[in-house]
Amino acid sequence: MASTHDIIIDTDPGQDDAIAILLALASTELNVLGITAVAGNVPLELTHSNIRKVCELAGSPDIKVYAGADKPMKRTLFTAEYVHGETGLNGAQLPEPTMPLQEQHAVDFIIETILSRPDQSVTLCTLGPLTNIGLALAKAPEIAPRLKNIVIMGGGLFEGGNVTPTAEFNIYVDPDAAKLVFDAGIPIVVMPLDVTHKALTTTARIDAFRSLGTKVGKAVAEWLDFFERFDEEKYGTDGGPLHDPNVIAYLLKPELYAGRHINVVIETQSDLTVGTTVADYWHVTDRAKNAVWITDVDDDAFYQLILERLEVFK
Ligand code: RIB
Ligand code: CA
Predict the structure, then answer these.
(1) CA 76 to chain CA centroid, nearest Å
(2) How far is it, in rounded angstroms, from Cα 281 to Cα 242?
(3) Nearest residue to 107 (alpha-carbon basis) of 130, 129, 133, 126
């Protein structure tokens, strides 16, 4: 029996976030306790709307969706319409959501859920800036030892950054929140650009999604056709990296991934390198190891997993 996971998804959709949410909702191994919106790729009022659009596309209007932080803990919000488009889900046309947004603030939902459930039973899956998690830790530091683990899409070492030469978007937007998370003693798995850049949205892979012949398959193909153009031009590759679904795929099939336990510290002060994940991959310091840093993925199996799971949506 595949292991099951009780998860909270914290996200800033974004086309790649949307595919990660679909993968989670299609997978019976995952019990989605709630989905929390954070400002990131686009402002908060769009991210919480986009989450609900995706839930309704998946036929899951009962999923509880919460609005969280509309700006980073200390810095000014930096958004990425230049990659994801004005709505954050450019490429596919989806109807405005009709399912409700929960009244409770996302940060309070995260705290309440962790404290009300058995020790080490909840996994946080973060697909955007870590603002909601940072705020939750600041408000209720007692959640840290209660968490099972946190799987984070963010950071980069061998691939550098994608917003500055050294900083990846999710960490760059809120480095102060990221520092709180990486310093909290929570078991962390990081999906950095080092691994997501090995999972490219090639034409054949996008066509396979389109060939599903379903609303979901069509939306996924249209999102990727739009989303990949920026990185294809930047990196000169057939397709762009598919980031966020790696977080969910790791929970479903960890055997597809390889990495090592290392120390990761977040730069929050330097104007030149703020938001950099200073990953001690070669253990040249004596800083305590605090994160599993993933560098490799079986990319064919990763895309096959997504394709197979999305078939559940008729
Ligand atoms: O750097 C990639 C990350 O930033 C992904 O999570 C993408 O959705 C954006 O949020
Ligand atoms: Ca994201």
Answers:
(1) 21
(2) 23
(3) 133
> In this structure, how many other beta carbons lie within 10 angstroms of the beta carbon of residue 148?
18
Collect all residues with Cβ–Cβ distance below 8 Å to 270 and sequence separation of at least 6: 276
Write down the residue that tokens 């859920």 correspond to.
113
State the distance from the centre of ligand 1 to the C-alpha of 16, rounded, in angstroms.
7
User: What CA–CA distances, in Å, run from 182 to 44, 112, 141, 282?
Assistant: 24, 21, 13, 18
Q: What is the pLDDT of residue 229?
A: 86
User: Is 105 one of the annotated active-site residues of the chain?
Assistant: no
Q: With 0-12 CB in 10 A as exposed, 13-18 as middle and 19+ as buried, what is 207?
A: exposed
Residue 202, domain CATH: 3.90.245.10
Percent of the chain, pLDDT > 70? 99
Q: What pLDDT is stored for residue 138 in this prediction?
A: 98
Can you give the pTM of this predicted structure? 0.98
For residue 28, which amino acid is it?
A: T
Q: What is the DSSP code (8-state) at residue 274?
A: T
Number of domains in the chain: 1
Residues with CB under 6 A from ligand 1: 12, 14, 16-17, 40-41, 127-128, 153, 162, 168-170, 243-244
Q: For residue 127, give the nearest of 196, 28, 33, 230 by alpha carbon.
A: 196
257-266 and 291-297: which strand pairing?
A: antiparallel
pLDDT per residue as tens digits for the range 184-196? 999 999 999 999 9
Identify the sign of the CA torsion 48, 50, 54, 56. Answer: positive
> 67 has which bridge partners?
37
Q: Among the options 5, 84, 197, 243, which is catalytic?
A: 243
- Which ligand has the shortest distance to the CA of 153? 1
At residue 251, the 3 state secondary structure works out as helix
Owning domain of residue 125? 5-310
Distance CA 238, CA 207 (A): 13
